């Protein structure tokens, strides 16, 4: 499997009247890869996975992997409330050519650690490609502490990397400590990116490259080269945009931003709403700056 590192870009899912606008999705994915991102991760929160039906999921996977055409790794988000549908999606992603899948445990009922472990083990047993375990309690309602994540890494064959999105740097440091540095962790909290990369994160999982790819790439490369002054300057420049897209909802703000940049991709899917006029005005200033 190719090494997964650096800027892992999360494209939005463009919609048309009849469903997924696959032509626009292909153009967006190609735009990101051509800009120099290090991996593509369709069907995360930014890609509105929770609002897609299964044929739409399949269309996004097929379009993304065909467009990437092996140029960078593809990590497909496959999360669902049920284990059965998560398995179906993971198997589809593997057959389509995904390099890895990302799983966020989502549940109406609070899951016990025993249930979380079994969920991941069941998916792992059904596929043969790596799993990125994704911890984001703000959206999933399920919190996986570092001790649990490292235990799954040690006991479930295909759990090989972690995306940590709580915004708590000590969790990443704890994952690194408990695993003896063997478990790659990736930052999923946009405002935390500089501290996370300095702490040894293998990459940054982010929607920001949809709008400003080059500064994101430059930030990662600056940290990698040890040029922390340059990294700090890049982060300071990006920070207002990162804070805005997180606060306003990634799909909503990124789609509005792409339209402002002359690359319309449609509106988010209801119950999500397009960005309001005040938000668009603020976003326009951020993109112009």
From TrEMBL:
Pyruvate binds at residue 46. This is Dihydrodipicolinate synthase family protein. The keyword Lyase applies. GO terms for cellular component: cytosol. It holds the Pfam family DHDPS. The active site is at residues 134, 163. SMART domains: DHDPS. One of its GO terms (molecular function) is 4-hydroxy-tetrahydrodipicolinate synthase activity. Signal peptide: none annotated. The keyword Lyase applies. It comes from Mycobacterium nebraskense. It comes from the Bacteria. Keywords: Lyase. Belongs to the DapA family.
């Amino acid at each position: 499997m190719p090494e997964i590192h650096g800027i892992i870009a999360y494209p939005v899912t463009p919609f048309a009247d009849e469903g997924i606008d696959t032509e626009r999705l292909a153009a967006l994915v190609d735009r990101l890869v051509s800009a120099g991102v290090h991996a593509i991760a369709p069907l995360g929160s930014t890609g509105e996975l929770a609002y897609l039906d299964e044929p739409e999921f399949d269309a996004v996977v097929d379009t993304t992997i065909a467009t990437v055409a092996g140029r960078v790794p593809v990590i497909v988000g496959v999360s669902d409330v049920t284990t059965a549908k998560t398995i179906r999606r993971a198997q589809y992603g593997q057959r389509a050519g995904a390099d890895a899948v990302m799983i966020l445990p989502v549940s109406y009922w609070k899951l016990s650690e025993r249930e979380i472990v079994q969920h991941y083990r069941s998916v792992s047993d059904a596929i043969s490609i790596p799993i990125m375990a994704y911890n984001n309690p703000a959206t999933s309602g399920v919190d996986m502490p570092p001790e649990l994540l490292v235990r799954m890494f040690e006991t479930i064959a295909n759990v090989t990397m972690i995306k940590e999105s709580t915004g708590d740097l000590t969790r990443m440091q704890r994952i690194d400590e408990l695993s003896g540095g063997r478990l790659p962790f990736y930052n999923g909290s946009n405002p935390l990116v500089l501290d996370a990369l300095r702490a040894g994160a293998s990459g940054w999982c982010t929607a920001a490259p949809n709008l400003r790819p080059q500064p994101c790439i430059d930030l990662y490369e600056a940290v990698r080269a040890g040029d922390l002054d340059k990294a700090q300057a890049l982060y300071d420049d990006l920070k207002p945009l990162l804070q805005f897209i997180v606060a306003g909802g990634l799909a909503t703000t990124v789609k509005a931003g792409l339209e402002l940049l002359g690359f319309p991709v449609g509106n988010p899917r209801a119950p999500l709403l397009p960005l309001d006029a005040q938000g668009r005005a603020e976003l326009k200033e951020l993109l112009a700056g």
